[in-house]
């Protein structure tokens, strides 16, 4: 019997993305699956029910119908524990699930013996790049962050020569040069700003410079494993703070993107630094969801402090829901293709990507 895949409308506040688009549903159906999608599931990203129906999807009335007897459920954000408790025992669940962040969610997954694949756990390898939801969604977040900064800033980004005189370009600093940071650098450069990038990992200098940015070297290195930064020592942090505080006195716009997986965002920009910035300066903190890189960030709010505007937007990827959904859905399809073949699910636990993404983790067979 063909594997049945269920997709429902996301219920998290402000979430507009969808885990499968008509394009990826068509591919799943071609792989032998039966796909059911709740009516309106794609509306936030402008994918119509008719587009799903044209792709061969069964468009159903509600979440219960989408998930009823489903062997595989695809989502963006984790379902509520009560919804997980209604899933078919032993079903597979794929999405950004964060089981360790909610005890009730973890217990629901285990009690129903759900084969959970939290995609944020996916190994960061070359083979996994086409499945990397963190990277694809961070790209949209970095892009949107710069647009927010441009809107909030009381100045032009590019240099302009006008009849009223020459306008100097805005000086923009991106803190953190992961995927979001690099996209922010590229976007700010396209808008004509004078761009710098700062990261405690010295190996990203070449990437920053390849996008037209200048690498800000503060003399503090925190190169870590797997492409992530390690936590700084107290001495290193103090020196970084001192040098950064001096530098940002002349910066017009800061975009913060620094994150350490599984931990609160590192506090990089202090209240004293903000107070030393020029009136009219702007800081957009992409790390707001995990506490923020700035001491003064209020998640979900835009505030003023001493003439400086500080924005802490949440779930920025959702604000670009159409393209974010397209990328996310392709990531999910590529991952699901590891175990959905010829209309059935077959988990090869010798496959590193499956063995290291499944929760609780199970080692690959010897």
Automatic annotation (TrEMBL):
Family annotation (PROSITE patterns): ALADH_PNT_2 (PS00837)
One Gene Ontology term of the molecular function aspect: NADP binding
Keywords linked to the UniProt accession: NAD, NADP, Nucleotide-binding, Translocase
Parts forming coiled coils: none
Domain Alanine dehydrogenase/pyridine nucleotide transhydrogenase NAD(H)-binding: 150-312
GO biological process: NADPH regeneration
Catalytic activities: NAD(+) + NADPH + H(+)(in) = NADH + NADP(+) + H(+)(out)
GO cellular component, one term: plasma membrane
UniProt domain Alanine dehydrogenase/pyridine nucleotide transhydrogenase N-terminal: residue ranges: 6-141
Pfam families listed in its UniProt record: AlaDh_PNT_C, AlaDh_PNT_N
Keyword Ribonucleoprotein: no
Record-listed E.C. numbers: 7.1.1.1
Family: Belongs to the AlaDH/PNT family.
Function: The transhydrogenation between NADH and NADP is coupled to respiration and ATP hydrolysis and functions as a proton pump across the membrane.
Protein name, UniProt field: NAD(P) transhydrogenase subunit alpha part 1
Organism: Luteimonas cucumeris
């Amino acid at each position: 019997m063909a594997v049945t895949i269920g997709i429902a409308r996301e219920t998290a506040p402000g979430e507009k993305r969808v885990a499968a688009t008509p394009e990826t549903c068509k591919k799943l159906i071609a792989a032998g699956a039966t796909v059911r999608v709740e009516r309106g599931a794609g509306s936030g990203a402008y994918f119509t029910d008719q587009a799903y129906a044209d792709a061969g999807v069964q468009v159903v009335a509600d979440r219960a119908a989408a998930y009823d007897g489903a062997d595989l459920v695809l989502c963006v954000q984790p379902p509520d524990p009560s919804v997980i408790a209604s899933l078919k025992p032993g079903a597979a669940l794929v999405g950004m699930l964060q089981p360790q962040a909610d005890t009730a969610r973890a217990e629901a997954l285990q009690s129903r013996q759900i084969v959970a694949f939290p995609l944020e756990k996916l190994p960061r390898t070359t083979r996994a790049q086409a499945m990397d939801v963190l990277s694809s969604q961070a790209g949209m977040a970095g892009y949107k962050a710069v647009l927010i900064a441009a809107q909030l800033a009381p100045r032009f980004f590019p240099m302009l020569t006008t009849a009223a005189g020459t306008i100097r370009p805005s000086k923009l600093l991106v803190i953190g040069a992961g995927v979001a940071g690099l996209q922010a650098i590229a976007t700010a450069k396209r808008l004509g700003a004078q761009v710098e990038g700062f990261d405690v990992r010295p190996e990203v200098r070449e990437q920053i410079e390849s996008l037209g940015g200048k690498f800000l070297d503060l003399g503090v290195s925190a190169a870590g494993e797997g492409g992530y930064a390690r936590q700084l020592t107290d001495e290193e942090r103090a020196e970084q703070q001192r040098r950064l505080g001096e530098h940002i006195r002349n910066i017009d716009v800061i975009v913060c993107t620094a994150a350490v997986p599984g931990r609160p965002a590192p506090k990089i920009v202090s209240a004293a630094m903000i107070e030393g910035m020029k009136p009219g300066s702007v800081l957009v903190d992409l790390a707001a969801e995990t506490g923020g890189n700035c001491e003064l960030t209020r998640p979900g709010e835009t505030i003023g402090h001493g003439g400086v505007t500080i924005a802490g937007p949440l779930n920025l990827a959702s604000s670009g829901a159409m393209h974010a959904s397209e990328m996310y859905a392709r990531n999910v399809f590529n991952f699901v293709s590891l175990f959905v073949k010829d209309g059935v699910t077959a988990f090869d636990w010798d496959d590193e990507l499956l063995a290291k993404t499944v929760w609780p983790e199970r080692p690959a067979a010897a």
